[in-house]
């Protein structure tokens, strides 16, 4: 490993703006994975990301003349915040080009960090598009380009993370896991680690749909992706840097790829241990660490994941929470076909036994059969196949949708619609206690000649469940229905005259 990187890291100027972040034990996760899992909390930096280190180190090494002319950067958000804060600290002007897909949270944060020192330009759909536009502006305005990853001073700034890790944990470390976008973080950390402690594995983590570095290392040359997945927007890079690719060829032991569900599960894991919420790119390293442990079946090792960012839009948490259960193999989803006859719905529920239902969508649509979308809590990944077999063994045609992106992202929210078969339907909204047996109590209390024509339930993590039910009740059974509702004891509201129901379902 070139000795100049070790020297650059040891003499990097980062602590005027950055702080030594904590190396924190993830107690709950360590116990679950049977390994000593540590989180390097770069999400606790002033800009909630490690990017501040590299940006400031680069700018702090510029001449007075260069600072006076100003700088330009291209960034999906976190590097932009680092440049903005550094510009404000050093008193220089900065133009920052950001992709149009950048979360508003990050755009607003850049404005706040840089104040009057920063001008923001939105261009393109990915970092690569923004980068090309920034290069043209660099020449036009004679600015100094502050690259987010492919620059020795930026790489050295990120490498100070490794320096801190080895100072904070002087006992054996088996592996350090790092998210890879363009490769600046892993290049800097890897250069230091392999210079000082070459026995420690340096493992990169990328998403399955943004794996430019993995493909490049496999090909032995830089590979440009045609498209990149945007869920982990902080690592959505079509082509890695020349210098980062060169370094990664020497310092990276392997690269693991993970999917969206695994990232969401890792965000949940960090929240459980720290009550902090990482952005997708920030949780990428931990998702890879978990995949590594599952693959290697290792125990009692010290494994470190760099939690590299926490700039996440609040409204994204709905998606994260929903998909985390699948990513942790705690939820399986199925399409099940049952006969459209009285008692079949109850028979299906009995088959579920003590399993916790996380979601249930059904709308009467066919006179002979009913299609149900159901989510079921699981303990391990293999449970979904076992549950599917049990349904099929009982005569219910079943499709396992646990790994079906269309079903998980869209169809689960679209089951329903109007039905010509929903005669005499009354719509009720219930609050059920969130405990086993609540649904069966409802079903066994119903009159046998009433039919459920609509059912929607989704577990929201509260101690009670919100359920919407359509019941086909003959007009002369209204008195018996009132008695049934009273004896049930669940809070309920009739919604048969709700205008939204009449518009979309009645």
Describe the overall structure:
The protein is α/β, with parallel strands linked by helices and 506 residues long. The longest helix has 17 residues, at 152-168. The protein has helices at residues 3-10, 27-33, 51-60, 64-69, 78-90, 104-114, 127-141, 152-168, 184-196, 212-219, 242-251, 260-274, 280-296, 317-327, 344-352, 383-393, 405-409, 438-445, 478-488, 499-504, and strands spanning 23-25, 36-41, 71-74, 94-98, 118-122, 144-145, 175-179, 201-207, 254-258, 302-307, 331-339, 357-363, 369-377, 397-400, 425-433, 451-458, 464-472, 492-494. The protein folds into three domains: 3-49 and 170-325, Rossmann fold (3-Layer(aba) Sandwich), CATH 3.40.50; 51-145, 3-Layer(aba) Sandwich (Rossmann fold), CATH 3.40.50; 329-504, Biosynthetic Threonine Deaminase, Domain 3 (Biosynthetic Threonine Deaminase, domain 3). The relative contact order is 0.10. α3 packs parallel to α5 (78-90), α5 (78-90) runs parallel beside α6 and α12 packs across α14. It is elongated and about 90 Å long.
